[in-house]
Every structure is written in C-alpha cells, then in structure tokens.
Amino acid sequence: MNTKVLVSISAISSMVNVIPMLAQTPKPNVVIIMTDQQRADLCGREGFPMAVTPFADSLALSNVWFDKAYTVAPASMPARCSMFTGRYPTATHVRTNHNTLDMYYKKDMLEVFKEQGYKTALVGKNHAHVKGKDFDYCEEYFHWGKNQRDTQEDKDFAFFLNNKARGQYLEATPFPAEAQNPVKMVTKALAWAEQQKDSAFFMWVSMPEPHNPYQISEPYFSMFSPEKIPATLTSRNDLSKKGNKYEILAELEDTACPNLAKDLPRLRGNYLGMLRLIDDQTKRLIEGFKAAGLYENTIFVILSDHGDYCGEYGLIRKGAGVPECLTRIPMIWAGYNIHPQKSPMDAHVSIADVFPTICTAIGADIPLGVQGRSLWPMLTGKSYPKKEFSSVIVQQGFGGEDFTRDEPLTFAKEGALQPNKIAHFDELNTWTQSGTERMVRKDDWKLVLDNYGRGELYNLKADPSEINNLYNKKKYASKQMELLEELMTWELRVQDPLPVPRNRYHFKRNPYNYHFEDKKK
C-alpha cells in the first residue's frame, strides 16, 4: 500500500478518535451577578475603610478585576440592553428606560446561548429587552418585591416595600434579612443550578438592590451607623460647579424629600448595609456552586449596571451628568480559565464588552453589529493590544434641546414628582435626560462634552469628585485636544455598523472586535 495512503488513513483514524473527545469537552457555565445602582469605589479593594464587600474583594484579588470599568449610560435599561447585545445606546436606540420597543440589534446573548445548547435562567430584576418567557427558568424580583408573590411572606414584604418604604425607610426594616430579595433570589438560583447536571447553563442573578428604596434589615442596618461612615468629598456647596441639571435635580429631590440633608447620612448607611447583604449572598451563591461541584466549570461575572451619588454633591440616586460615581462600575471575572491578577487590570473596559467576551469564552462567533470588545485574551493571561483598552466612552441623554425650569412644564405634570408621597420621585426625567452628553476616560483624565459645546476636563487623580473644571484652561490645552481627538475617534467607532453593506462590499472586522492591532505581532 502507498505510504501516503497509510499516513492519510492514520491521520483520519486519529481525527476520528479526537472528534468524540472534543464533542465531550463541556462548555463552561456562565453566571452574571448584577447589582442595580452600585458605585464602584465603596469597597475595600479600592481603599474604602469599612467592610462593605469583603467577599467580592477577596474574590477579585484571587481572580481578575477592573477599576476602570464603565457603564455605557447611567440608566438601567440602556445599560442592560447593551450588556445583552454588546451595542451602545445610540445603536440599540434604547437611550432611556422607556424605549425597549425601539430596540435594534441582530442577535443577542440569550440567542447565542440557546444556539450553543445552553439552558438559561433569570433570577431577579430584568429591565432589559428580553422577556421572562425567553428563559428556560424565570423568577422575577423588582425593587418592590417578588413579581409573583407565592407566599404570605412575599406578600407582606412587598406590601411593606410598596406602602411603607416606597422611596426610603429610616429605621431598621421590620422583617428579617432572610425576607430580603437577595436572600430569596440566591435560594432560588442555587436550587435551579444544582439540577443542571446534563447541560451547560447561563444564569443571570440580577439583584434589584442597592437601588432605592433605601431600606435594610438588621444586622446590616447597625453595621453602618451614620457617625462611622466617612464623609463625602463634596456637598451641595459644589452644585454650582456642576451645572444647571444638577441644580434642577437637587430641587426635585428637596421637594420630594424635605429633610434630605438630615436624612442623608442614614440613607448612606442603608445603602452600604444593602451592599453588605448582597456581598454575603454572593458568597453564599459561589460557595454553593463549589459544594455542588459546579464552580470549576463556571465563569462568574460580577458587575453593576451603573452607580449612585450616595451623597455626592448632596444628592441621592442618579440622573444628572456623567460623574464617576454614576458611570464607573465594579467588574470582577472569576472561575473557569480566569488567570489571577491581584492588581486591577490596566485596561478601560465597558459593560458593552461582556457579551463579546462571553462569545469568545464559549466558542461562539461574535455576532454582526456587536460593538464591544472581547476581554477573554486578557482574562486568560494572553496578549492583547494595550491601545485597544487605553480609553472608554460613555453616552448620556435622549437628544433634543435641554429643558430648563423656566418652561411651563412642572415636575408633577411631567410625572417626575408624586406629591404627598415622601421620596417618591423619578430622577430620570425630562430635565435630567434631555440633550446629549459624551464622556471619555483615558488614564487619569476625563473629558465631557455636550451638544452645546460645553466642556468639562478633570484630572481624576487630583480631583476624584470632578469639581475643578480645567476645560479651556491654557495650561491644559494639549491634554484637552488629545482627549477631544480620543472622543471623536470613539464617536466614529461606535457608529452603528448595521445593516452591513450588501452586494460586492466586504465588511472587515477583528475576531475579538479589536480596532487596534497588537504592534508586537
């Protein structure tokens, strides 16, 4: 027999033996643990002096974490839709919490998981374009309790949240911690995950907290008493430096919460207490995975959709502008194939990068229209182009002209304020969300530009609270121009590629969605 034929038969035989082995290689499970409205800096790994997130801190230091991770926009629905599609709000068309009907994309994360044979589950808050029925398993919770209240405890706790603590509650919540959403959710999540023995699965554990209503049970209420919490670096005295929208938001908050200045320290304590409860439940979830033998084959992503003022500028919640407390988010990747790095990863990343990263991790192609980049090479210790992650962009606003308080529209008529209901206001309203802002972060610098040409320039190392605006200062002209060029480059880059050209034209893209190549190659 011909030697070449023998070699070919041998090669084919080897392939036959390899293919079943490859087919049997399990795909990793994926668990996204998302909080709602968690600012990034209130944790030990970033120097906060109280034990707010001890478990997440230890997990981060033994895996991979980012201290320059950003949302795409400081509002829930735009951010969540971006996480699921890898597309920026200008591309999804979801620039507010009211625009899911306008959602535009080719293929999202849930569809990719299903194509790859994954079981899917949602436990917690949705507030994205996906529907509960799109998941194989769904238990939805919102800021005011479980959506489908099966037990009397569910009903009683939801009644309390809706009627006694709709906006905030200044005493210890009269329910045990076990009644809180995060505890109930982790119980449901573990029960479902432990049943998934024959299939890889994706689970979105989406905590509705620490978003308002700011309420918390003991022992967490007493853990963060107001007199022990470090003071904020800013106050209402700094509002005039931040602009008209901040001042309008302050007026709305004071109208809804006439005692806000007095209540603010306690509200900050409630916020930190809820973060600690979430941290304890994150630990319970991950230790449950370890006990069930699921941890080693699971990728965990821990992040938030956006931040919270938590007292910065004398404000609560979110709404005006793109300050770090609203735009920078916590982000940790842990588990399967993650290459540990104790220091924060030196990269600027976005919530839009989550979907393409997961695609790479599970062996799926990144769909057309995705604008985020895959972080998988850097997460697994491989080389990646540093320039690709040298900056990041954030979008804000639904467009049009800015609304002012000189117009006949009132808070009550618009729906931003419900009179006679303490702390019941909508900070995401016509005044705070009108117009357009863009933000770019690069190294220690940050530039913001709006649709009127008004600019902000900050050195975040020297001025972390962004109250010393250096825009148009002659001394910083070179840095300002550098960041304006960076912002313009990003704006061109995130123009929607959909629909891609038809007929002869060839649409080129990098397998990881990188824009800049590694010069070492």
UniProtKB/TrEMBL annotation:
Family matches, as SUPFAM superfamilies: Alkaline phosphatase-like
Post-translational modification: The conversion to 3-oxoalanine (also known as C-formylglycine, FGly), of a serine or cysteine residue in prokaryotes and of a cysteine residue in eukaryotes, is critical for catalytic activity.
Positions of post-translational 3-oxoalanine (Ser) modification: 76
GO cellular component: cytoplasm
Cited InterPro entries: Alkaline_phosphatase_core_sf, Sulfatase_N
One Gene Ontology molecular-function label: metal ion binding
Amino-acid biosynthesis recorded as keyword: no
UniProt entry keywords in alphabetical sequence: Hydrolase, Metal-binding, Transferase
Annotated TM spans: none
Keyword Ligase: no
Domain Sulfatase N-terminal: 28-363
PANTHER family: IDURONATE 2-SULFATASE
UniProt name for this protein: Sulfatase-like hydrolase/transferase
